[in-house]
TrEMBL record:
Keywords: Heme, Iron, Metal-binding, Monooxygenase, Oxidoreductase, Signal. Heme binds at C454. It comes from the Eukaryota. Its cofactor is heme. This is 3514_t:CDS:1. Pfam families: p450. GO terms for molecular function: heme binding; iron ion binding; monooxygenase activity; oxidoreductase activity, acting on paired donors, with incorporation or reduction of molecular oxygen.
Amino acid sequence: MFFTFILVFISFIAYKVYPKFRVPEGIKNVPTLSFLKLVSAIFSNGGPDKRWEITRKVLEKEGIGKLWFNGVWHIITTDLELTKDVFSKTDLYPKTSLDESIPGSLTANYYGTNVVFSNGDVWKRHRYGITSHRKSISAVIYFPLFLSHITSPAFKSLPMHVFDETAVKLLKVIEKVDNGPLEVQDLMHRLTLDVLGRVAFGFDFNNLEDPTNVYVTTYQEVTAECDKPIYFIIPFIEYLPYFDRTEARKKVAKINELYDGLIETKRKSMETEELSKKINNNTADLLECMIHASSDPKYPMSDEEMRYNLAMFMLAGHDTTATALTTILYVLATHKDVQSKARDEILRVLGDSLIPTIDQQRELKYLNMVIKENLRLYPPVHQLPRRENSETIKFRNHVFLPKTPILINIYGIHHSPNNWKDPEEFNPERFENDNDEKREQYTWLPFGSGTRTCLGNNFSLIEQRVMLCALLRKYEVSSPTDSIHQDKLHLDHSSSTLTGLQSLHLIFKRTE
């Protein structure tokens, strides 16, 4: 009887487990990527470069590979044809919501349904709330170098004085450690968080001057909890007693109190006509625009939805730009000829000014080349959130059944010799006289592409130009001789989509 019970139990487990591992017929011929190697790389804090080393042989040859993850076979791709299809047919390849991919998790509860992880009418409603009432000044902010990648009106009207004032604060912080090693990654995160807080919802975190700000430390703790890889690799572990995240959920509640308080305060301003005045003179911040737009019955947005969007802006709006600024300072420190050439251009174009005007930013052709090459070499978003096809797709001799998870590997596309000559070299000149119509559109994707292009691309590019102009005018940047990054920038695991870095110290020496 006992052996019969064991046999039945084992048969039941096999019946339940086998379908999880069974490869769908249509993708059996897709090369398999090693789950164990990738998981090992993640737990050893391997960055996207390490993961690319593991997958590049397959992806460079075939353009796609299949990966078993969380009971489902995923398609990982660097194929430009499939990438184009995904970007251009959003109804056919909708994004997977957090409630679908990691239901009930801390991450899903914190970020919820927002403009990034939504589709169809829900996405259009959220996008309207964010992009409406922002007076387009594309005739003024016109950068041919990035034009084909700037498709949304979000952030096109920006309070430039916020960038200017924060740049001055940044210089004052650096002055205190003049000519000494300075941890750059943390500094850039503090900088971009201050800028985003003021532009997005009129709140000054003052993180540059007060790194221990309670809201900032709580926010950092929340994002660190959300990024822990074990909860992505073994999602159910979150519901086990030993791995209970009660304390983390308390921290989420605390940061949500800040968001809710800001939303309530802004809503009250509608009663005094103060908000309407800001909308009319185009001085409203992003949260005020969302609140004003939500009064349109066609595009309602609840306070909870606004909070979810604020949480996503905090992540996407400052983390990615902080990474971009950190990596570009590194490449400038290790390529002194590039740094010197960029500085000479800044001095020539700006004259005695510290901060570039919009017209002057247009003239910084070489600096724009440096920024673009840095975003190619070290894309802040190394892999896009997964999408799932809504119907059966035929790709080459493969068949993707509906709901097949598809992941676009941006780092792989940017580092493939199929797309770039000497892809591991830092070479801004590859973008000289750049014509995006001649070059394959989907080989440079730091902001994504198509209708779902990053809404904050203008915001990030302007912030990078302003900060680099201020820094390079005042300082020469170099790498300490004992730096672990002396020969190569060591990337780190940040999350399933964002690029992380190991601690990076650089030296800022005054040029004047």
